User: Which sequence fits this backbone?
């Protein structure tokens, strides 16, 4: 991949590497991420589903409905990652085609300008989506208050400003089938890892698709 093209896609490179889907990533890195990242993150969806099932059999409809939306979102992220993994070879061919097109048309000043303009738009969307310099409208930025709630409540409880006698909160209603009070902090850390992992899957894949579209827009403008 050309250095200028890779510079435009630097953030996408980082995000896709984090989920093990970058086309040029080393095989051992992909294996390690698939072995560690995927089970840890996907387990979040499993325990959320367990929490819903537990609430259903306990006739706690409020708890069931509370857990429904996060579970559906988690399931969507799982499907998105599985779909991209299943079509990995096609996505790799598409990335190679993008690199070949860039190498061909970057030698022509007008065509090069068109590609740069479209890639700059793709980078701008990625920045806005991921959060750098646009945190108020980003997906990561929108998750910050939600992620902070357990920390704030636990801190307030530790300082005696809040009564947490009914149990310390996790991020979601889940069912780990173990003592959640005894293993509270490991479970809380896992919920953070799972949540950030799901957000990363969405941001990485969606912004990569934006670059696919922007590249095609540039090619249509060049060839049209």
Assistant:
């Amino acid at each position: 991949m050309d250095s200028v093209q890779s510079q435009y896609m630097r953030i996408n490179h980082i995000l896709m590497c984090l989920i093990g889907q970058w086309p040029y990533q080393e095989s051992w890195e992909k294996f390690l991420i698939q072995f560690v990242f995927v089970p840890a993150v996907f387990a979040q969806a499993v325990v959320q589903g367990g929490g819903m099932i537990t609430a259903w059999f306990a006739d706690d409809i409020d708890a069931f409905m509370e857990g429904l939306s996060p579970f559906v979102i988690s399931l969507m992220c799982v499907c998105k990652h599985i779909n991209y993994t299943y079509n990995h070879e096609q996505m790799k061919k598409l990335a190679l085609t993008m690199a070949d097109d860039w190498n061909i048309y970057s030698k022509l000043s007008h065509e090069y300008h068109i590609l740069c303009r479209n890639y700059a738009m793709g980078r701008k969307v990625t920045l806005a989506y991921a959060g750098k310099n646009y945190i108020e409208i980003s997906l990561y930025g929108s998750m910050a208050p939600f992620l902070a709630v357990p920390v704030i409540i636990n801190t307030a409880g530790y300082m005696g400003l809040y009564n947490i006698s009914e149990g310390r909160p996790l991020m979601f209603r889940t069912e780990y089938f173990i003592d959640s009070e005894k293993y509270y902090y490991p479970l809380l850390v896992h919920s953070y890892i799972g949540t950030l992992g799901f957000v990363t899957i969405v941001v990485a894949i969606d912004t990569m698709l934006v670059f696919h579209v922007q590249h095609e827009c540039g090619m249509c403008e060049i060839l049209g």
In short: The CA atoms of residues 12 and 208 lie 6 Å apart. The chain has eight helices and no strands. Residues 133-137 have pLDDT under 50 and may be disordered.
